[in-house]
Amino acid sequence: MSDPTRPGGSPPEPPRSRGPGRGPASEVVASFLVNGEAVRALVPATRTLLEFLRDELGLTGTKHGCDLGDCGACTVLVDGVPRLACLTLVAELEGAAVTTVEGLAADGRLSPIQDALDRHGAAQCGYCTPGIAVNLTALLAEEPHPDDAAIREVLGSNICRCTGYTRILDAAREVAGGGQ
Amino acid sequence: MLPLPRFAWQAPDTLHGLLDAAARPGARILAGGTDLLPSMKHRLHRPSLLVSARRLPELAAIYEDGDDLCIGAFATLRAVRRHPVVRAELPALADACATVATPTIQAMGTLGGNLCLDTRCAFYNQPEGWRQALGGCLKADGDVCHVARKGAGCYAAHSADTVPVLWLLGARARIAGRRGTREVPVSELYDGADGRRWLRLEPGEVLTHVLVPRRGAPVVHHKVRLRASIDYAALLVAVRREGSGARAVISAVGPAPVEVRAARAEELPDLAHARVKPLGTHVVSTAWRRHMVRVAVRRALDACPVP
Amino acid sequence: MSGAGHRGGGVTDFSTYLGPEDTLAGRPAEGGIVGRSGLASGTGKVDGPPKVTGAAVYTADLRLPRMAHAKLLRSPHAHARILAIDAAEALAMPGVLAVLTGADLPGRHGPIPVARDETALAVDKVRYRGEPVACVAAVDEATAREALARVRVDYEPLPAVFTLDEALDPGSPAIHEHLARKAARTGRSPNVLRRVHQSFGDPDAGFAEADLVMEESYFYPGSTHVPLEPHAALAAPEPGGRLRVWTSTQNPHSVHRTIAAVLGLDPAAVRLTKPEVGGGYGGKCDTFVTELCASALALRLGRPVRLALEREEVFYAHRGRHPTRMRVKMGLKADGRITALELEALANGGAYASYGVVTAYYLGVFGTLPYRLDHYRFTATRVYTNLPPCGPKRGHGAIQPRFAIELHLDRMAHALGLDPAEVRLRNAVEPNTVTVNGLRVTSVGLRECVERVVEASGYRDKRGRLGPGRGVGLAASAYMSGALHPTYANEGPHSMVQVKVDRSGRVTILSGTADIGQGSNHMLATVVAERLGIEPADCTVVEADTDLTPVDLGSYSSRVTFMAGNAALQAAERVRKRLVSAVSAELGCDPADLVLRGRRVFVRDEPDRGVDWRRAIALAEAEAGALGAMGSYRPPRIGNRFRRQSVGPSPAYSFTAQVAEVSVDLETGEVRVEHVWCAHDLGRVLHPEIAAGQIEGCVYMGVGEALLEEQAYRDGLLRAPSLLEYRVPTVHETPAIHPILVESHDPEGPFGAKEVGEGPQLGTVPAIAAAIHDATGAWLTAPPYTPDKVLAALRRRGVR
Ligand SMILES: Cc1cc2nc3c(=O)[nH]c(=O)nc-3n(C[C@H](O)[C@H](O)[C@H](O)COP(=O)(O)OP(=O)(O)OC[C@H]3O[C@@H](n4cnc5c(N)ncnc54)[C@H](O)[C@@H]3O)c2cc1C
Ligand code: SF4
Ligand code: FES
Ligand code: FES
Question: Does a cis peptide bond (omega within 30 degrees of 0) precede residue C370?
Fold first, then answer.
């Protein structure tokens, strides 16, 4: 299935219509929740969730590490499931519930995994931390007492260049163990 | 950040609408986007229209259909991996889904997207400016192949983790187009002649389902890679014993997976080694990947129960 | 909750971190720094909560009204003359605001004054594939990126130089013209940045004394830092002609000076701020094109401009580990004593000097630690090639020779049938000595490191006994705690810290240091809180803002705890004196009897006789006015013992010993590092979680360099310009890391502390290499130990 457009050439102009998605649209409208708040986005079809969160909502806790799916720094939850914001189009989010790192703490109190990451000194530079906190939150919501293999498997989605993952694993193990 | 090239987006709510949209010039199916969007950021593809199936949840459903498990092409790898029938009866498929990329990407990427995954090459899946420094290559923007400079073709490697397993399981791909629906064995979906035309889908055709026979001898999936996560295969192997013989499907070595059969199972590793010659499409040394063909086939065979 | 430090085999027994000699006024009798700095009370670092909630602000998170975006056009050629640049078409595009080229910013810069050979954008010539040539500013990123394709550059390609041998060839094309003229005179290669040769004692006599002399070659590959945060800078014009710059840097002071110099501004007209930095490891020490172009564009356009790199571009910015070819010759007595050492190191530095002059020295100077040597000589050469520039990466310049020397020592111990651990102990440098090349050594915890790591790992029981395909290996090392001499000549302190006390009780610490994740903010808070008898949480640290904070030279050479920590301690001590004076007057007691502890100031033997923290502050203000103080640190003037000894000496050295346990698949060559035990003498533990975290990070980075990472090129083009192909270890490749903190109480360190951010990496790769030998019988002299290389080596040895 080769690319029908000429490589290197300029792409044919996309149709300039705007619509709810039943016809081709170069600008799209999508209504969804971000950390529980309703958002109505009117954006170019090309807009990724990472750009939208950071540039339009000012939610800069979700990080840009590669923009290609390789690092996990941009991990958010969509309907409770981890996703890479850099590879998610806003267009695809109609009706979804997005949770970012900013949405993990409730009433100004750190969530259990945030608290554990903090106490274990698991954030050095902190750049991977939002993605990891989000990812571990999804794991723990689904399986409150994951075993070591399950924690490691999930952490395999995120690169941390500072910590050797050691303290992150410790924090996750502590929460998984029920904080005994 | 890497802006996406301009395109329009459309999410039809009927299969008919989906097929109509997919048949427009410049259209492409957007499934999980985990292969397509990075490639578009690298300007490897510039579709003018992305057609989403998100309004067609039936195409993401997984259900038992007689002797088959019918998996909607838009089911995520995570959903496939976790499905009770897959876990109980098709563990090799679960294993193969589990080696794709990362758990997060498995929750986005689809089985259909994996079957349609673009062929990969160390000279191709790279940023635009990097490729321009080389003057591009046959598969994109150029007229030489850096892997085989004298060759006239492209050798980009088929790298989809689930395909060797599905091939050996005898899975069939259900493909819909405006002129109707057809079913082809996964083993006939690929063309090894050229890495630019590896997928036998006509323009506008959409993969809608993957039908996996539930019975049959077990298959073993074996992926060779340098990292246990965030790594495409340096080599992919699936094997299945059949009577005293065995078959292997080997991938990540050329534009299509290669099937090797041995009348006596113990001959399979050497036969595979003689048949399969990886090329320099991967950053990992070609000689080592070649060596690993024999080792991986043998190890997979060792792990494969005698029927 | 399990005590965070009490993980199996990990940090244990905090009570031993306290030596009686530094019982301070105000120290709780039963606890100490460890208890109060967070662990026992269950609180994390001062920067923990913002980082786990996403509130921490990094440079690319900042947004300003009318902010424009810049993108870089990079060279497709490794070496070429720039004949013409035509930006007219790009400038004509709607939304494009400006295009900069080399001619706009011709000022040469570089972190080391003797080798300023870099420009913000290429001038006249490009010297590596990926070098920035033009910078486009536009209203948004997409427009700027599109416009890059419309900037036309005519190049005349030139022959390029990639390898060490090519660079050393006197006939090689000159990468820097000014060196061509000199080379023409001397008949040497025009591509040598620096060659350092030093000899101490009588090496030939030393070799003659030896029972065994061995000479071997080693190669250590290049690798890059891969901070998860790509470099980014934001610049904005300020009223009154001033310029504000926010940037992701580890050396704010140096970048501040460089921006002013290149843009021709008075440094007082530039205010530089470092937001949170998402990882540095040495990779953000230089001044980068991001800072210079964003600044120039902001001034030209009169609006804020952001320049944030893509991931691919971070690999071009590089400044990573120099690929280094080495020859080691060593003499050993039959009992394992080293009689002489000779080292030759050739480092491939890429297209610009960066810190390369320092690299050349570091490659040789640290050869004399951690073992006592009477006879030593080295030659270290750093050359230019048409590749992205190398620079300082964690363990700068010391990693490569330490790899070669440790592995060599292991080989020789093996040849002599000696226990490698015993050989290390036998040669261990003694405290309070001076090395043959003039390094003044004070505290040394090496013996304890070796003993504890051997015991924790079971090294002696395991070595040679784990069966085929499994093995253990040991290595030891030493590293500096800051450089005695600054990177540019000046007589000022290396670090200054201001402590100011508010009537509310809140203490603000102002420091030019750069916390890049290593925890220097928490270190400052700990030191000040400890001295004032309050909690780190009572302190606000304001760092790295040139309008607000006094100068600190930056986060490099593992200098911050030692230098800024001492400056903070001095400032806090001055504040303490004021408090004690005022309170003693109030209580009518001897100032020497007062203790500061638990947010109170009281009489040591009558704890009820005292005042609370706020009252103490009020008394001090009443007595002598505003309460605050400055402190500074300048290294001791130890004095050079010989000429050209200015690069390398440090006020103190850290020591490390580590053991790696590996398994090797003999059929595939795949290596798994299962465990690394790493005992590190950091002088004094100021915060065990941070200290252990630094050890873990060092070992992690070493494991990456041992198994996977190489910044490799094909005809000067990066092979792996992505996080997919430049493989850093994921959690699955990372071993169980067991840090062991060893304290030697340095006489000059703050509370006895030295460094822990770099030293622990030095021994990781040689320990793994030794373990691979134990597992397979093969000495692998060139990491990374990817399966293809390991298998090839095993085959050569006939293992398979
Ligand atoms: C960091 C990273 C690592 C990865 N590692 C691996 C790996 O190890 N192994 C591996 O196999 N993959 C890997 N991938 C690729 C990818 O995640 C998977 O292959 C995934 O299954 C692709 O599915 P998708 O739904 O995301 O496909 P998309 O990206 O949406 O689509 C891929 C292609 O298939 C076409 N397509 C998709 N669905 C259909 C359909 N139903 N009918 C017709 N055409 C269709 C699209 O138009 C596009 O051309 C990796 C990706 C990333 C970013
Ligand atoms: S095999 Fe050759 S033509 Fe195909 S992608 Fe690689 S370099 Fe390009
Ligand atoms: S930024 Fe999305 S995965 Fe790296
Ligand atoms: S804490 Fe720095 S990348 Fe994880």
Answer: yes
Contacts of C42 in chain A (CB under 8 A): 119
From B127, B227, B232, residue closest to C721, measured CB to CB: B127
Domain C398-404+415-485+644-796 sits in CATH 3.30.70.3090: no
Distance A127 CA to ligand 3 centre (A): 12
The CA distance from B217 to the nearest CA of chain A, in Å, is: 29
Contact A162 C697 (CB under 8 A): yes
Confidence of residue C641 (pLDDT cuts 50, 70, 90): low
Tokens found for residue C637: 């003037």
Could you tell me how many helices (H) and strands (E) chain C has, helices first?
21, 30
- Calpha distance C123→C75 (Å, rounded): 12
Asked whether the beta carbons of C299 and C291 are under 8 A apart, the reply is no
Backbone φ and ψ for C383, nearest 5 degrees, come out as -110, 160
φ, ψ dihedrals at C475, nearest 5°: -150, 155
Q: Phi, psi at residue B223, to the nearest 5°?
A: -115, 130
Residues of chain C in contact with residue B123, where contact means CB-CB under 8 angstroms, are none
Residue C588, classified by CB atoms within 10 Å of its CB into exposed (0-12), middle (13-18) or buried (19+), is exposed
Both structure tokens of C658: 């580590």
Ligand 4 center–CA A76 separation, angstroms: 17
Architecture of domain A112-176: Orthogonal Bundle (1.10)
What are the residue ranges spanned by the domains of chain A? 28-103, 112-176
Token look-up 């919501």 returns A141
Q: Which pLDDT tens digit goes with each residue over C72-110?
A: 999 999 999 999 999 999 999 999 999 999 999 999 999
CATH superfamily of A28-103: Beta-grasp domain (3.10.20.30)
Ligand 1 touching residue A56 (CB < 6 A): no
> Using one digit for the tens of pLDDT, what is the confidence trace for C169-226?
999 999 999 999 888 888 899 999 999 999 999 999 999 999 999 999 999 999 999 9
Nearest CA-CA distance, residue C130 and chain B, Å: 8
Please provide the CATH number assigned to the domain covering C60-158+231-317.
3.90.1170.50
CA B55 to centroid of ligand 2, rounded, Å: 36
* Residue % of chain C over a pLDDT of 90: 90
What pTM value is reported for the model?
0.95
**Euclidean distance between CA atoms C280 and B23, whole angstroms:** 49
Structure-derived torsion over alpha carbons of residues C554, C558, C563, C566, reported in degrees to the nearest 10: 130
Q: Are C291 and C255 in contact (CB under 8 A)?
A: yes
Query: Nearest CA to B228 among C707, C439, C791?
Result: C707
Q: Do B230 and C730 touch (CB under 8 A)?
A: yes
What mean pLDDT do residues C135-155 have?
97
Q: What is the pLDDT of residue C458?
A: 98
Pair (B164, B63) in one structural domain: yes
- C-alpha distances in angstroms, C271 versus A153, B16, C300, C347, C509? 45, 61, 17, 36, 19
Asked if CATH classification 3.40.50.1440 holds for the domain at C47-56+493-633, the reply, yes or no, is no
Q: Which of B213, B246, B266 is the last residue of a domain?
A: B213
Bridge pairing between strands C653-664 and C671-681:
antiparallel
Find out whether the beta carbon of B146 lies less than 6 Å from any atom of ligand 2.
yes
Residue C340 in 3-state DSSP?
Answer: strand
The CATH code of the domain that includes B286 is 3.30.390.50
pLDDT in tens, C666-719: 999 999 999 999 999 999 999 999 999 999 999 999 999 999 999 999 999 999
> Which of C145, C721, C727 lies at the smallest CB-CB distance from B227?
C727
Q: Residue B260: enclosing H or E segment and its boundaries?
A: strand B258-262
B230: closest chain C residue by CA: C724
A57 CA to middle of ligand 1, Å? 29
Q: Among B156, B186, B213, where does a domain finish?
A: B213
Q: What are phi and psi of B122, to 5 degrees?
A: -65, -15
